[in-house]
Amino acid sequence: MLAKPAQGESAIRLGMIGVAFANSQGIVTETAGKLSNWLKVGDCLSESSTVLLGMDEAMDELRENPGQRLTLPNICLDKYNQQNFHTIHVQWDSDNKQFVISTTTLEATNGSEFDDLREFRAQQYLQERLEEERQHFRTLYERSPHLALCYDTKGQLIAASNDLRLEFLGEAPETSTLHKQLTEGPIWSAMWAGEKLNAHPLKATDCKGDIRELELSGYLVTPPDKLSKEVYYSLADVTERNLYRLHMQERSAELEAATKQLRDSNKRLSRFASVAAHDLLSPLRRIATFTQILGEEFEGPQSESLSFALRAIQHSAERGQVLVDDVMHLTQTASRVGKLEAINPTELLKLVAKDSDLLLEHSKGCINYAGTKHYVMGDAKLLRSVYRNLLSNAIKFRDPERPLKVTHTVSDTGTGHVRIEFKDNGIGFNPEGAEQVFEPFTRLVGEDQVPGTGLGLSIVQEAMKAMGSQVSASSIPGVGTTIALMVKAIEK
Amino acid sequence: MRAKKIVLLGAQAVGKTSIARRLKFNSFEHDYKSTIGVQLHELKLDFEGQKQAVVLWDTDGNFGDKVFESVYVKGASGALVVADSSRPHTIAHMLHMIDCFEQAMPGRPCFGVLNKTDRKMPDAETLDEVHQHTNQIHLCSALTGQGLLQATQRLIEASNKRDVTW
After folding, report:
1. What angle do CA A65, A66, A67 make, to 5 degrees?
2. DSSP E strands: which ranges in A105-222?
3. Model confidence band, residue A3 (pLDDT cutoffs 50, 70, 90)
4. At residue A185, does pLDDT exceed 60?
5. Cβ A56–B3 below 8 Å, yes or no?
6. Chain B partners within 8 Å of A46 (Cβ)
7. Calculated CA dihedral for residues A270, A271, A277, A279, nearest 10 degrees
């Protein structure tokens, strides 16, 4: 039903601020007074009006209950960004089958009558924030059972943990050195400048008169009311920790000095061994040479004993040279390590075996290879020296009853290392000697049976150590020996 | 496109009015001025290439969950329930209000907004707790404007999906 034009005007004349009418579908049919600013004829109340937006169900309810009135109090319409307070009523007029929308507030205001309430709520909020900060402070010093305290704007102590009172503040906190430091001078100024202190070093005298080292954290709580500012401090007594740290630094320096001394001593020893070995070689060579000349000078019918003596001198001189060579090799191994590179150990062993071809042939030996595609990170010179010694041992300690058979197996352990097994079918040794074989000059078989200096496996171990790798040995007498090398794998 | 009514709910002083002001005027006022009753803001948001009319009902935080007994929430297309990320009890209140809204207006989208993240980001433990309660949580700041428009647009999107489904 269309609105009757007289209705709105008469309502305004009767003192209404604004009035509007809408038909049963909620379409505005007439507006008058203040409401004409918000509602226009043809607007759908539940779709385009600000206040009744989406309220289809609420309007259905009104239609079903003609006596009911929908009131929207204290609505603040923000048109032009101004605060205007109105109360809107909506009612269903069953006689005329229309909605009546009216505002009865005498005059729109700027809301200043709510200022007191606002002020009260603002104070409430500030109080709440302050309480939250205090709670935060309480939680802080409950969590850290050390030392905490807080001051007001005048430097009056508000609260302090019991430990702090017992240890530093005593019965007259104002006279304590800690109190003075916290409420005067640069720390107090920093607090009022709004700075936050974190683990600031501080020294204070405790109640026993001892000087303690402390770490101070502090901040200023600044609620906007500007009256209840408080300074919160928390302290940690780090005297023992600092002493311990100092002690550890001293110990660490001592340890470093001792390590350096040991390293220097090792270097000197190694240099000495190298020089000594070099100087020994020269007279040994001369002995060997002159023994040979002597033998040639006395050519002809010589007494058997003289011939034996000359052979013995020559043999000893030659053995001496080999021994000195090996000692030099051993002492220089660690310093010879170069940059590690990717090496195929199988190919390297094949090269070494080629050099020892004649010896292998003589012992009717053969080498079987497995895992030939694996690479390792190593120093080619050192690894070659390792293989030369291992192959030499395999030939020297072979079983005369059967042809020599060496199996070389390379496998990736998946732990960043490659395992190389060098297995022979030689005479072997007692398993108890598995660690002993790496000791310099250790021989598990008499020299009269197998010649050698007893330095071969020591050189192998030194070379492996220099490359950051490991070596181990296992053996069964009469069956053979296995030397296992754990070498760094190449990074994928 | 039909206008949407979005209600802003949450405890006192969590920044509901600041959020409304940021969305409408793209500005921020540092003074805290408590909202008495409700404040309405009409705004137009760009949404899928069109202007979407939105009426924000910025409610009085002092109402608590009694707001659901009033007409303010009636006919709302969705709600943004705000909490102050630096005050844990407002976060608990936010979760409670989300429950209340879902009960009063079943099926209508309701997003949690953790405001004031410029001041303090919620810790991992709090976020875990909130996420166990609801997936729709947005980290925002009315001071910088970060995350607000996205949260509102997502809410309208969710509301439109619901309209289509129904």
Report:
1. 95
2. 147-151, 157-160, 197-205, 211-221
3. very low
4. yes
5. no
6. 75
7. -170
Q: How many CA atoms lie within 13 A of A336 on its CB side?
A: 19
Residue pair A390/A483 in contact by the 8 Å Cβ criterion = yes
> Is residue A80 within 8 angstroms of chain B, CB to CB?
no
Q: In the numeric block, which tokens belong to residue A492? A: 């994928």
Question: Most A CBs within 10 Å: which of B39, B85, B160, B162, as the mutation test of the A interface?
Answer: B39
Q: Which tokens sit at A176? A: 């304590």
Query: How far is the CA of A210 from the CAs of A180, A181, A205, A236, B99, in angstroms?
Result: 17, 16, 5, 16, 59
Residue pair A163/A147 in contact by the 8 Å Cβ criterion: yes
Question: Residue A351: helix, strand or coil by DSSP?
Answer: helix
Specify the CATH number of the domain B4-165. 3.40.50.300
Task: Say how far apart CA A236 and CA A114 lie, in whole Å.
Answer: 49
Nearest neighbour of B32 by CB, restricted to A56, A72, A125: A125
Q: Which two tokens stand for residue A471?
A: 């070596």
Task: Write out the E strands in A276-356.
Answer: 341-343
Neighbours of A430 (CB within 10 A): 11
* CA A277/CA A328 separation, integer angstroms: 6
CB B76 within 8 A of CB B57: yes
Reported as a single tens digit per residue, the pLDDT across B44-67 is 888 778 888 898 999 888 888 888
- The token pair at A458 is 């020591």
Interface A-B: count of C-beta contacts within 8 A: 74
- Please, which residues have CB within 8 angstroms of residue A260's CB and are 6 or more apart in sequence? none
- Which residues partner with A480 through β-bridges? A476
Asked if A122 has any chain B CB less than 8 Å from its own CB, the reply is yes
Q: What is the CA radius of gyration of chain B?
A: 15
Are the C-beta atoms of residues A179 and A171 closer than 8 Å to each other?
no
CA distance linking residue B17 with residue B24, whole number of Å: 10
Answer yes or no: is pLDDT of A24 > 80. yes
Q: Which residue of A has its CA nearest to B76?
A: A54
pLDDT in tens, A77-123: 444 445 556 678 888 988 888 888 887 654 445 556 667 777 788 88
Closest CA to A160 of A180, A176, A141: A141
Tokens encoding B35 = 């909202």
In the DSSP assignment, the letter for residue A490 is P
Whether residue A54 and residue B74 make contact (CB cut-off 8 A), yes or no, is yes
CA–CA separation, A54 and A362 (whole Å):
106
Do residues A30 and A58 lie in contact, with contact meaning Cβ atoms separated by under 8 Å? no
pLDDT digits (tens, 9 = 90+) for B90-117: 999 999 999 999 999 888 999 999 999 8
ipTM: 0.79
* DSSP assignment string, chain B: ---EEEEEEESTTSSHHHHHHHHHHS----S--PPPSEEEEEEEEEETTEEEEEEEEEE-GGGGGGGGGSSTTTT-SEEEEEEETT-HHHHHHHHHHHHHHHHHSTTS-EEEEEE-TTT-PPPHHHHHHHHHH-S-EEE--TTT-TTHHHHHHHHHHHHHHHHHH-
In whole angstroms, give the CA distance from residue A436 to residue A451.
18
